[in-house]
Structures are given as structure tokens and as C-alpha cells.
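Suppose a colleague, Dr. K., hands you the sequence of a protein chain of 185 amino acids and asks what its three-dimensional shape might be. Before reaching for any lab equipment, you can write down a predicted structure in C-alpha cell form. Begin with the sequence itself:
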Amino acid sequence: MIDELKKEASQKMTKSMESLSNNLSKIRTGRAHPSILDAITVEYYGQEVPLNQVANIKIEDAKTLQLNVWEKNMIKEVEKSIISSDLGLNPAVSGNLIRIPLPPLTEERRKELVKLVKQEGENCKVSVRNIRRDANNKLKQLLKEKSISEDDEKRSEEDIQKLTDSNIKQIDERIIEKEKDLMQI
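The predicted structure, expressed as C-alpha cells, is then:
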């Protein structure tokens, strides 16, 4: 019972970490990366679909993304979706290819992105702490029902705290790494 509780807490914390990684990958640094376009959707035969389902996205060079749109009639729709996104990108169309040059980040924009990264990190820490709190509450409930002893409860709380500390440390490391990426010119 206790092992299941610890395993469940560990799995939830891992999912929070994966969510953080996913969110951080969407925050653009100075380099071109296809994940920048993950949030963009395109209307395709009456349905909104992710951009990567209508075009092949490649990195042309460090500052340029290249999209190879599979259907010629979708080029204008893809271009319109990229322009209307809040990413501030200006695509250039040539034939079936769409090139997206990434403008350099200003110092002010870099600082805004660092604040955003710190906010994402703090949200993840709150999530991990909430998971710890829920697990500890379940342990207290088991103790109240006399399903476990006080020693088992204390040991389990310590294990869950170690797991929490480990995850918080990983979050801090990822945030510092992303900050360095953002402030690099």
C-alpha cells in the first residue's frame, strides 16, 4: 500500500517534470527549433490541425526554419497561420517552400523570456509540492485507519520528501540551463 502511494507520487512528479520540459521547449531561444511552431494550427478541410501535419518542418540554418508544405493549395493558409500567431514571425514563400527567418532577440525580450521561464519553473515546483502534500495526507489517513504504523508513516514521509527535494533540484537545474540559453547571444 505504501509502495503504491510512493510510486503514484513519483509518477505524478515525473509527469510534472515532463510538462515543464515541454513548456520550456516552446520558449524560443536565439536558435531555430521546430518546436517553436508546435502551438500553430492550420485549417485543413474544415478542421484545425497542427502545422506539422500539413508540412515538413526542417532547420535550414541556426536562424531559419524551412517548411515544405505537402499540398500546394495549403501554402497561403500555412503562411496566414504563421503570421497570425503571436510569435512575431514573417514567413517568406518561394514555390512549395516557406522559409521563416527568426529575428534576433532583444535584451528586453530575453529578460521577459527569463521571467516566463522562472514562472514555469515555479508552477512546476508548486505542482510537485502539491503532490507531496496529497501523498502525506493519504499517509495520515492510512495511519488514522490503523492500516500502517507511525514508524511506517514517518519513513514514508521522509522518502516522499527526498523524492520532492530531488525533483525541485532538477527543476532548478533546468531553469538555470534555459536561462543560460536565453541570455546567450
